[in-house]
Design a protein that fits this description.
Elements: E1 33-38, E2 43-48, E3 61-65, E4 67-69, E5 73-78, E6 83-91, E7 96-102, E8 110-112, E9 117-124, E10 130-136, E11 139-140, H1 143-153, H2 168-173, E12 181-184, H3 196-205, E13 208-213, E14 236-240, H4 242-248, E15 254-257, H5 259-271, E16 275-278, E17 293-297, H6 304-313, H7 315-327, E18 338-341
Helix pairs in contact: 6-7
C-alpha cells in the first residue's frame, strides 16, 4: 500500500460505522473501555478505564485540565421576530463575546432571550462567527455577570455529532469531577472517565497539577485546507498555575489528560507564556517537546485532534490503532471510550 502523506488532510480520513458514535456515556463513567498503546513495542492492549493506573509508569506526573463547561447554547428570537440559536464561542474581553448564531443577523440586530436577556450584534466575521454584547435592563453585562444567567436559561452545548438535544443528565455527565473554572463550551472529554474515587486514587499515587484551557467551539472546526499546515488554528484561553509550572519545568515524565492539557503544556514550552491565548497545532511535523504520555478519546476523521494523536505515534500507527478500535467496536467521540499512549 502506498504510504500516506502526513501533511495532507485526506490522509486523516477513515470510515466509522455510525453505530460506534457514543450518544450517551457509559455508567459508571470509569467503566469505559481503555485501549493502551505502547510505542516501545507498538503493542495494543484492551482494558477498562478503572484499570488505568496499572498501566501508568510509576514515576510519571499527571496534568489535568480544570476547565468547567458553561451552558453556552441559548434559544431566543430576533427583536423583529424569527427564532434564533446562539452558541457562545469565547469572551474577547470583559464585555465582547464571540458567538455563532443560527439565523440571519446583521450589525445592530438585537437577540432576545428568557429573563429579559438581550444580545446585540456588534460585528460580523468572515468565518461565520459574530461578536455580541449582552445586556440586562439596558445595562451591559460583564462575562462573569452573564454566567449565572446562562446557568438558569442556557443549555449544555453538546457536540453536533451527538445528534440530540441536551437533557438533565448532561449537566452532570458532560463535566469532569474536577471541573472548577467556568469558561469552556466543550468538555475536555478524556477527563470525563474519572470518578471521584478513581481521581483520588490516581492522584494519591502520582504528582499532579491543573492547567486551565477553556475549550472553544473551534475545537470542532473541520480542517478544510488540502495541506494541514494551511489550516488556521483556533485560539483558546489558557492559564498555568504554579504547581503545573513546576511540574512542566521539572524532569519527571508527564502524562497529559486530554488534548487540551497537551496543547496548553506544549504552547507554554514553546512560548514561555503562562496565561493568554493558545493556538498550537500539533501534528507529525510538529510533535510534542515535553509531554511524554497522552490520555485521549477517539476523534473525528480529518480533525486537528486526530492529527495531534498522530504527532505522538505517527500517521500509519494512528490508522492501525483506529482500525483495531473499530474492529473491536470501541465507542467513539466525546462520550466514547479512551486511549492511553505510552
Amino acid at each position: 500500500m502506498t504510504e500516506r502523506d502526513p501533511l495532507l488532510t485526506s490522509s486523516y480520513d477513515y470510515e466509522l460505522p455510525e453505530e460506534l458514535i457514543a450518544t450517551y456515556p457509559i455508567s459508571p463513567r470509569d467503566h469505559a473501555r481503555l485501549l493502551v498503546y505502547d510505542r516501545r513495542n507498538r503493542s495494543i492492549t484492551h482494558s477498562r478505564f478503572d484499570q488505568i493506573d496499572s498501566f501508568l509508569p510509576p514515576e510519571c506526573a499527571i496534568v489535568f485540565n480544570d476547565t468547567k463547561v458553561i451552558k453556552a447554547r441559548l434559544y431566543g428570537s430576533k427583536e423583529s421576530g424569527g427564532a434564533i440559536e446562539l452558541l457562545i464561542n469565547r469572551p474577547l474581553d470583559a464585555y465582547r463575546i464571540n458567538v455563532y448564531v443560527r439565523g440571519r443577523v446583521k450589525e445592530g440586530t438585537k437577540l432576545l432571550f428568557d429573563r429579559r436577556l438581550v444580545a446585540t450584534v456588534i460585528k460580523l466575521h468572515d468565518d461565520g462567527s459574530r461578536d455580541v454584547e449582552f445586556s440586562l435592563a439596558g445595562e451591559r453585562l460583564r462575562f462573569e455577570e452573564l454566567l449565572p444567567l446562562l446557568d438558569e436559561i442556557g443549555h449544555i452545548p453538546l457536540p453536533p455529532y451527538l445528534g440530540r438535544e441536551d437533557d438533565s443528565s448532561d449537566e452532570r455527565e458532560y463535566q469532569s469531577v474536577f471541573a472548577r473554572r467556568e469558561g469552556a463550551v466543550a468538555a475536555p472529554t478524556a477527563s470525563l472517565h474519572f470518578t471521584d474515587e478513581l481521581f483520588a486514587a490516581v492522584s494519591a499515587r502520582h504528582p499532579h497539577a491543573f492547567v486551565t484551557l477553556h475549550v472553544g467551539s473551534g475545537t470542532f472546526k473541520p480542517v478544510e485546507a488540502e495541506v494541514i499546515t494551511e489550516h488556521p488554528m483556533h485560539s483558546e484561553y489558557f492559564a498555568i498555575a504554579d504547581e503545573a509550572y513546576a511540574l512542566i519545568h521539572g524532569d519527571v515524565p508527564l502524562l497529559c489528560v486530554g488534548t487540551t492539557s497537551t496543547r496548553t503544556v506544549e504552547y507554554h514550552v514553546r512560548s514561555g507564556e503562562r496565561e493568554g491565548e493558545a493556538n498550537l497545532f500539533l501534528h507529525p511535523n510538529n510533535p510534542p517537546q515535553r509531554v511524554n504520555y497522552l490520555l485521549t478519546n477517539f476523534h473525528l476523521p480529518q480533525s486537528t485532534l486526530l492529527m495531534l494523536v498522530a504527532s505522538f505515534v505517527g500517521l500509519e500507527e494512528t490508522h492501525r490503532i483506529y482500525a483495531e478500535a473499530i474492529a473491536q467496536k470501541y465507542r467513539f467521540f466525546s462520550y466514547g471510550d479512551a486511549m492511553l499512549i505510552l
